[in-house]
Amino acid sequence: MNQCGEGFRNVGMILEPSEPSADLQDRIIQRLHEEAYYLRIRRQFAVLLLLLISSLAVLPFTVFALFEAARLSGFLMFVSLLFSDSAVALSQWQDVGYSLLESFPVVPMIACGVVALVASWSLSFVLREYRNVWKHRPLLHVGR
Q: What is the pLDDT of residues 98-109, one digit of tens each?
């Protein structure tokens, strides 16, 4: 800082503004692009954190629905038959196989799989981007 204040140079008795550096505009544009990038990352982080919380909240209900559908359709009885009386199951393997396929709860299994995939995908993003979201200091400090 000089005697006349920052950003000015003393030329005799007249104060003239000093010239900005040549790359100042490039640095400003670069910083604005960084701000836009980190704002987008923070929004994605917030949305995916909300998605993670909601999918983890729904996951026990879908697992319960899967087991309930398997119990009601008789799928668990056929599976227990495979382990309890395997000789009969092996002698009638085609009928037991068709019965397993007919009684398999497809829709609850798909629902449980989709919820588990969404939870794991959003968890991986949240864990990967957690450090990037909080390490960046914003350009404008509101409230200071």
A: 988 999 999 999
